[in-house]
Design a protein that fits this description.
The chain is α+β, with helices and mostly antiparallel strands and 176 residues long. It has a domain of 122 residues. Strand 1 and strand 2 form a beta hairpin. The longest helix is centred in the N-terminal third of the chain and has 37 residues. It is elongated and about 80 Å long. The termini are far apart.
Length: 176
């Protein structure tokens, strides 16, 4: 006979204590947790922001070299800003390295030598990661639309499209 509160030392005694003497263990109770779509969206946004931040940190030396090369090759700003429309029609700035000559006529492709290299390697798009870190874009989603085109094509508020997904760096079909 055991003293009250003494712990059993064999597996059969533990089973008897857990099952209440029936020999059948009760099923484990899992806490019921419903999958909240907002939790999933918040988690995806956090992952997007962290991946973009890590990518920016690792590519920072390359980005600084590109900025220096652009500055030395032609006068003008290093970065260009385009206003784009994001989720639910909100505008956001989209930053890219300048690859054309300053003062070039719209539509003319006066690409600098450094700009041509940046375009071929797609390094000119790396500053777009700033928009992902800010939460304006996602890593995967539809391409962002330029703001003036979208505004001129939608004159009436009732003609607006329903809520659209957040624009991304890469489209769904481009993923392996």
């Amino acid at each position: 006979m055991r003293a009250a509160g003494a712990m059993p030392h064999d597996a059969a005694a533990v089973d008897t204590l857990v099952s209440g003497g029936t020999g059948v263990n009760p099923p484990l109770q899992q806490p019921s947790r419903r999958h909240n779509p907002q939790d999933k969206a918040a988690a995806m946004q956090a992952v997007d922001r962290m991946v973009a931040l890590v990518a920016l940190v690792f590519t920072l030396p390359l980005l600084l070299l590109c900025a220096l090369a652009i500055r030395l090759s032609s006068p003008g700003p290093v970065l260009l800003c385009t206003r784009c429309v994001g989720r639910d029609g909100r505008g956001f700035p989209l930053w890219m390295f300048r690859t054309t000559r300053t003062g070039a006529a719209p539509g003319s492709a006066e690409v600098t030598l450094v700009g041509e290299l940046l375009q071929q390697t797609r390094i000119d798009q790396f500053p777009v990661l700033l928009s992902v870190v800010r939460g304006d874009m996602a890593l995967v989603g539809p391409a962002p639309e330029p703001f003036p085109w979208l505004v001129s094509s939608r004159d009436d508020e009732r003609q607006r499209a329903p809520a659209t997904p957040k624009p991304g760096l890469s489209g769904w079909l481009e993923m392996p």
